[in-house]
Fold:
Amino acid sequence: AIHSSESTSSSDEERFERRKSKSMSRARNRCLPMNLRAEDLASGVLRDRVKVGASLADVDPMNLDTSVKFDSVGGLSHHIQSLKEMVVFPLLYPEVFEKFKIQPPRGCLFYGPPGTGKTLVARALANECSQGDRKVSFFMRKGADCLSKWVGESERQLRLLFDQAYLMRPSIIFFDEIDGLAPVRSSRQDQIHSSIVSTLLALMDGLDSRGEIVVIGATNRLDSIDPALRRPGRFDREFLFNLPDKKARKHILEIHTRDWSPKLAEPFIDELAEKCVGYCGADIKALCTEAALAALRRRYPQIYGSSQRYQLDVGSIVLGPQDFGRALRSIIPAGQRALTPPGQALSCVLKPLLEPTLAQTLACLMRVFPHADLLHREHIHGTLPFPDSYSEDEECLGAPSIYETHSGSLKEAASCTTHKPFLHFTTSAYRQPTSYRPRLLLTGPQGAGQSTHLAPAVLHHLEKFTVHRLDLPTLYSVSAKTPEESCAQVFREARRCVPSIIYMPHISDWWEAISETVKSSFLTLLQDVPSFTPLLILATAETVYQQLPDELTCIFSRSYGEVVCLSMPGEEARRKFFSDLILVQAAKAPPRRRKTVSALEVLTLAEDPGPRQLSPEELRRLEEQEENTLRELRLFLRDITKRLATDKRFQIFSKPVDIEEVSDYLEVIKQPMDLSTIMMKIDSHKYMVAKDFLVDIDLICGNALEYNPDKDPGDKIIRHRACSLKDTAHAMIASELDPEFDRMCEEIKESCRKRGDPALQAVLIDFNLFLSSDNIKRKLRRRPIWGRGIIRKKKSYKKEEAEEDDEPEEEEGEDDSAAMVQGDACLTQDESSCDAMELHPDKQPLQANGHILSTEEENSSEPTATQDPQGEKEPIKALSEEASSSKEATSKCLIMFYFPVFQALLEKVVVKSDGFSVDHLERVYSVLSQCIYQHRRDYDKTHFNPLVSVRSLDCLQPVNWS
Structure:
């Protein structure tokens, strides 16, 4: 008994282990990589790694774009080099890692704002690693795809994912939005998430070796990830994906426009990259798209008035600066939708006024913060292709050897090491710039532009550095944090990603508003920053330096050049500021009216392009997939036919009718059908959908009902069995055929019809013949209706239509529906009505194009354009003559402008604005601009007396700068 119980328990355990292994195998087969196809997995080395099933992944978040490579990524060369060290180099140069017995980094974390290329780099890495004979499996999970409502299922999914990646190594697992999968563990968090995080930690760096599995995580919120993940062994490297600088933006623009013809000029790309401050990679791609659409809208506005397709000259669509200008005005960068960045270029209006002051401020900045000068030189001269590469200098050549020496005694080796150390951690002034607590203060009276224009322009110049804003909204906007915590967080983030900048606008008002504890915290945090840390404190004060509190004057020392005192704009700067407005813009001619809608050309309708022609490789893959689906359909139909044929009730329909026994059968039945013929048609690939099969079943039933009248008892039995055969076949198809599979077969049939496959077209023609013969037999019972001769008229019409159209019916597209409507109309109307119906489709597109884009004078020329295709040029020519005559009339209008009056106005404005602040000068500029805008349509500028607007200057008092 004991022996039997032990054997029973052992057999139960064996069965349980077998079931468990099968279940695990099925579950792993649902976690297949995205970048490999089934034929790739079942061939070569991959087949030896793991036996792969036919099911797809349980989560298919995206289809991998194989065209994305590293050359499609701009501005992230350092990140790409690091990824090559992690993934590509161990495959290409394994001898290097074998020599030093090291393992390459197996984990990295991407973090940064949205749209900066984190997922794009992961896609490029997957494609770069899957070239030629080397295949790297790429697994991707987005957010919380692995989470489940069942307890323990999420941990099981993670374990299965890592098991499958281990079996198919080398492999990459990419967790997009990993903060949703592994958030920070805390006491307030539920136990489920903590268990998932613990499982992920153990899988990434546990007792078992992870092998050749690279784990990549991407997130927008770095602080939300559990800190245990951010250590070597799990995520060895962290890559910051920041907003691209000017050089990176130029590279991204070149990537997105490299296939354009003609290519954009390099000076224009430089200027465009200068304007796209704050744009991420996705914003720049959207900018190129919007510019192309703006060019299309400008060249062919007619196509927006109709839904039909017209013939367009694509070569005439050329992008211009105005198209990119419209795109820049229409796009809001992703980073500016929630919060406007502090950096902003100096506007073209204020450049004559503040450009000298900005140059002086930047010169002072270069002395205080030399890292900015280094950045400026990198933009001018460029950098090495490998920024981490270095060369051996004299110090390295003269340094003692770090390896063991077999010659000499140990005492001599020890004495050599005591004289000169191996490692030198002293700061080298020759290799890198050094700055002692860099700080810069822009001070001046209120309205001098230090906070509104100059400081944003300085930050725009330092766009590559990370900027952290510290002002009153930063301290008090989050109610869950105290001001002291917010201040400490700003310093902590700034020190984490040095070199960086802490921007403090209106520091004088900020200092007066905060409490004493916040002041003490700020001073403590400022003193805790190491002396040579490249952390710039940039501040602005709306008061003169002498009126600042003593604490602030101690922070920003004037003697060390850390204070820039703004001076009032000089006379020459004010003259340049107003001269363009008064002497140039006020004398401009009225804006010409845009080209009227009537002057637009009338476009001709384009022919239907038909379905897209597939490449030979795509066609081969599509045919293989369709053949696999149709093979499953044939197996299913054979099983149905075999079951019907073996049923004793339907044996009478299993073979063709013997003509020797029933000699008049073919005289009554024009299209015989039986189950054996259906089986032959299945073998001949005549059925593409189950509906075709049911049509032949219905044909068997219809033949039996037609040949066997309801008179003889034997005929009644045959009729009953025929109806039973029909109902049984329909019930079996409805209950056993998957509707989704049937829909796939319908799509295959429609796809073959559009492609015009000859073999499959023969099937369709055969099927149409069955339908037509079936309809003819059913219509024979209505002799009076068929005797009217309508069918012959319909056939002749179709024949004429086929002779007029050289293209097959399958390639007509939308025109088929119009032809069918015409054909139906011709069945019930006479020939004159059919002719009228034929002219209507040709007239309708010209009406849609002409009526929308023409005026009342053009209505008389529409019949000519409809009858003669060459006559379409006549209204265009007339319209161009009208446009040219109106242009000549406009050019004949002279502009009356008395220059001495406006010169006097300029001098009066310059004199009256002496001592005005930048804000006051902007107000005067606005008043003069409004006056010019109100008289912009006048040709006679003598009636415009701009001296009236100078009265507003008397209301403004100069600023006391003392």
User: Anything to note?
Assistant: The chain has 40 helices and ten strands. Confidence is low (pLDDT under 50) at residues 42-62, 380-394, 769-891. The two ends are 110 Å apart (CA to CA).
